[in-house]
Specification:
The complex is a heterodimer of chains A (about 500) and B (about 325).
Chain A (H helix, E strand, L loop, with lengths): L1 H6 L4 E10 L2 E11 L4 E5 L6 H8 L7 E6 L2 E3 L4 H7 L1 E4 L11 H6 L5 E2 L2 E2 L1 H13 L16 H14 L4 E5 L7 H16 L3 E5 L3 H7 L2 E6 L2 E7 L5 H9 L13 H6 L6 E8 L3 E8 L4 E5 L6 H8 L7 E6 L2 E3 L4 H6 L2 E4 L3 H5 L6 H13 L7 H14 L16 H14 L4 E5 L7 H16 L3 E5 L3 H7 L2 E6 L2 E7 L5 H9 L2
Parallel strand pairs in A: 3-10, 3-11, 6-9, 9-10, 15-20, 15-21, 18-19, 19-20
Antiparallel strand pairs in A: 1-2, 1-4, 4-5, 7-8, 11-12, 13-14, 13-16, 16-17, 21-22
Chain B lengths: L5 H20 L6 H26 L7 H18 L4 H25 L4 H19 L4 E2 L3 H8 L1 E3 L5 E3 H19 L1 H11 L1 H6 L4 H27 L1 E2 L7 H11 L11 H21 L6 H21 L1 H8 L2 H9 L1
Antiparallel strand pairs in B: 1-4, 2-3
């Protein structure tokens, strides 16, 4: 069997695939091959090109270069529907089915068995039941899809995809909202598909799952293929090194330790004990003192943003307690968090942060005005003063305060958001990926600003995928893996090497 | 009991309660005479409501139906009553115009991404304006065809009359049910209403389906206009003003979710008959003004929208699914 497979051409082969978006190369000369019966996992951080690769294979985007071969024949998928006709089906993280139709109808929508010019509903239901039973899933197929759990909905989506005489099945982060038992259920479905000789491409951020189900792994980074491995020959540390693109070096962190030591005796500004939320993040403890920078490291999907959301009250903790200045308190809403003196710069500044059509001045005063209440209007003169102070303090590159924010560069937009929080003078700032997508010069400047703010006595919690950056400014580093705090590093332990090993669970 | 049947069940309970109440006050509600009249009197807007059911299930809205009914009446009266056209060719021409009118609105909605509310609002003004331009006064139709249609009745033993118009209404109802549940077009309408993005990814031809939905709605509104013209034997550009709102109300009271994806043609029929029953009761009673019907519609609409809200919330669903989901999941795991 195996020798047979070796001789056959790969089920799906991609050669030199390239995709350009305005101003960025999303995918550059990527080779990829999938064999029948393989579970081939694609891994990589944000912007690595995983979704772009999938979207090119499934016809959501059109390729700019390279070839895609299915069973040795070149194909050019024009739309998801076309890809499906060719035998390539996709199941997305967000279940793309119709919640208001029955399970059976979802499986057969658009290709219902007909009799005498009408849909034979009984055949639809009987066949749907049969298809699900093949995977040991025995449910009432006449009930609405929405009455079932996400795991069952995923399986229904897979069954629909598979029943379309599929050759390649793509699963895009199917497990991210499932609990352990449901993941097992899904994996047993995947294994039986494997036995049928279907090639499976899986995207997941959970390393344990990679090792549990994959035969092969392809690592992508910044739109390029880094390497392809048999999973049995790949140590975890190497996988993570390739994903993050860092050599294991010995550089220690550059922030002087005096600030930590002089603070250790003081009552921490914020202390949380056993903070947790079911299905989001497992209990964690965290202390942050004034003037201290705590870095939050972990892979994408490890729960970094969730920690920030819990602390800022965007999501509510369902267990654990919080203390601000040693006094017990609750953080149930961002409003409450802001009243405690917290500030949060969110990860995706385009979606959550800036309002592009408003001027730099208007964006900067937004949070302060909201905090003061809309009836307590800031005079124009005061607004100008504040905005100009900030433009100077953070050296925001703009000709004047009235320029629409969308016309600034990414780094300067990031500074505007930072300025917005700084004028309301918070005691504690949470920055989620403050340097993502900004150029090198601005990068260094933002890091300088972060250090200066800490020196001024602000407590800071900073999420970043860039280990070098975290090492550069953090006094302590909290490490997350699979939605769990796994380690906290301090002093000389704060270096890329230790962080990497902690992430890899070695 | 599946939760999606609950609004339909409520519709039926309301109808049964209203009808029994009316029967307890006026025993004539037990006769075929009232039943026959109910079907005849409510046929025209009932037919339009069946078209609207498809539109609302797909997640859209059609505000143009009242105007289309009026335009159809005036057009038929002008052509048959004044210009001496034969009725059958006139109807065919009119149905074709109506279908194209709806298809055009559907294209605006799909290809130009104009919200259905706006696209059909302009349809409302256009059709009403055209009706006024054709004639501002009521035109009588004297034609042997109209005479013979009005004589086409089945008379029940108790002198109840089952008219041609009532028959047309029931025929549209049966075809509507068939199309909604037993054709791919019908199921695609439900799919689009349930989740438009997913429907596209599942291979539903959303463009074609949208055009067909609005074409169907306008076709049925045109047919409703013809039915009204047959029973009134005249055409008047001022009729059916605001009728689209009664039609939408009936669809919602019939258990169709305004957010789309869930609904039943039979529910719309029951709701039309409910409102017709109340109307007839008020007329027979005589002590209340007929405008009470508007108040009843308001109360029912409020109740049904409240019910929908409850059902669409997670908690509501859990309330009605009787805690079976979890158990089933565990069994299957």
């Amino acid at each position: 069997m195996t020798t047979n497979l070796q001789q056959m051409p790969p089920l799906l082969e991609v050669r030199g695939l390239t995709k350009m978006f305005p101003a960025t190369i999303a995918l550059s000369e990527v080779d990829f091959s999938l064999r029948a019966g393989d579970v081939h996992v694609l891994v990589g951080e944000n912007g690595a090109g995983k979704s772009t690769l999938i979207k090119l294979i499934t016809g959501v985007h059109r390729k700019d270069g390279g070839t895609i071969l299915l069973e040795g024949k070149e194909i050019d998928p024009r739309s998801p529907r076309h890809a499906q006709e060719l035998g390539i089906s996709t199941v997305y993280q967000e279940v793309n089915l119709i919640p208001t139709l029955s399970v059976a109808e979802n499986i057969f929508l658009g290709r219902q068995p007909m009799r005498w010019g009408m849909i034979n509903m009984r055949a639809v239901e009987r066949q749907a039941k049969q298809l699900l039973q093949d995977f040991n899933v025995d449910i009432d197929v006449t009930r609405n899809l929405s009455s079932y759990s996400v795991a069952i909905q995923q399986i229904v989506a897979i069954v629909r995809g598979v029943s379309l005489s599929v050759k390649v099945l793509i699963l895009d982060e199917p497990t991210s909202s499932l609990d352990h038992q449901e993941v097992e259920m899904l994996f047993s479905v995947i294994r039986s598909l494997q036995e049928r000789g279907i090639g499976i491409i899986l995207i997941t951020h959970f390393l344990d799952q990679v090792y549990a189900i994959a035969n092969r792994v392809t690592v992508l980074r910044n739109g390029k293929k880094i390497n392809e491995h048999l999973i049995s020959e790949l140590p975890r540390v190497q996988l993570i090194t390739e994903m993050l693109g860092k050599e294991l070096t010995q550089d220690t962190h550059s922030r002087d330790d005096t600030s930590t030591s002089k603070n250790t005796n003081r009552v921490p500004f914020l202390k949380v004990n056993g903070f947790a939320r079911k299905g989001t993040i497992e209990p964690f403890d965290l202390e942050i003192r004034q003037g201290e920078i705590v870095g939050l490291a972990g892979l994408l999907g490890s729960g970094r943003t969730e920690v920030a959301h819990l602390i800022f009250g965007i999501k509510q903790n369902d267990s654990g307690e919080a203390y601000v200045h040693g006094k017990p308190t609750t953080i149930k809403s961002p409003r409450q968090a802001i009243r405690h003196g917290f500030g949060l710069c969110p990860e995706d500044r385009k979606v959550e942060g800036i309002i592009g059509d408003l001027s730099v001045r208007e964006n900067i005063i937004l949070a302060l005005q909201a905090k003061m209440g809309w009836f307590n209007y800031l005079s124009r003169q005061k607004q100008n003063e504040l905005a100009n102070d900030m433009i100077k303090a953070l050296s925001i590159a703009t000709p004047n305060a009235e320029k629409p924010v969308k016309e600034l560069s990414g780094g300067n937009q990031q500074k505007v958001i930072l300025a917005r929080w700084l004028i309301s003078n918070p005691d504690f700032l949470i920055l989620d990926e403050p340097t993502r997508g900004i150029d090198v010069g601005a990068h260094a400047e933002i890091i300088q600003i972060i250090k200066r703010l800490a020196d001024e006595g602000k407590a800071m919690l900073i999420i970043s995928s860039e280990l070098a950056e975290i090492v550069a400014y953090s006094d302590r580093v909290m490490i997350l893996r699979d939605r769990k705090k796994v380690r906290e590093l301090e002093g000389d332990d704060v270096n890329e090497n230790t962080i990497m090993h902690a992430i890899a669970a070695d | 009991m599946k939760s999606r049947f609950i609004p339909l069940l409520m519709t039926f309970i309301v109808f049964a309660a209203m009808y029994l109440f009316a029967y307890s006050r006026f025993s004539s509600f037990g006769s075929m005479r009232i039943v026959g009249n109910l079907l005849r009197d409510n046929a025209y807007w009932g037919i339009a409501a069946i078209g609207m059911t498809f539109v609302i299930i797909s997640g859209g809205i059609d505000l143009s139906v009242g105007s289309v009914i009026a335009f159809t009446g005036v057009f038929c009266a002008l052509m048959i009553g004044r210009n001496g056209w034969d009725p059958i060719p006139t109807f065919i021409v009119m149905l074709t115009i109506g279908t194209f009118f709806g298809a055009t609105m559907g294209m605006l909605i799909h290809y130009f991404k104009i919200p259905p509310f706006i696209a059909t609002l302009s349809g409302l003004f256009l059709a009403r304006g055209m009706a006024y331009v054709l004639s501002t006064e009521s035109i009588r139709i004297d034609h042997p065809f109209y005479e013979s249609v009005s004589k086409l009745v089945y008379i029940f033993p108790d002198k109840g009359r089952f008219t041609f118009v009532a028959g047309a209404f029931l025929l549209v109802l049966f075809i509507g049910i068939f199309v909604a549940h037993f054709t791919r077009f019908g199921r695609n309408v439900y799919a689009m209403g349930g989740n438009p993005d997913a429907a596209l990814l599942l291979g539903v031809p959303t463009g074609r389906t949208t055009v067909m939905i609005y074409a169907l709605s306008s076709f049925l509104a045109t047919f409703a206009g013809i039915v009204l013209s047959l029973s009134k034997q005249s055409g008047d550009s001022t009729i059916a003003v605001g009728l689209e709102l009664d039609v939408i109300a009936a669809v919602v009271i019939g258990g169709t979710l305004l957010t789309g994806g869930v609904g039943y043609v039979i529910g719309t029929f029951i709701a039309v008959m409910t409102l017709g029953t109340i109307q007839t009761y008020l007329t027979l009673d005589g002590s209340l003004t007929p405008w009470w019907i508007k108040i009843v519609i308001g109360v029912l609409l409020f109740g049904f929208v409240g019910l929908q809200k409850l059902l669409s919330s997670r908690q509501g669903l859990r309330l009605f699914s009787f805690g079976r989901d979890r158990k089933e999941l565990q069994q299957s795991a």
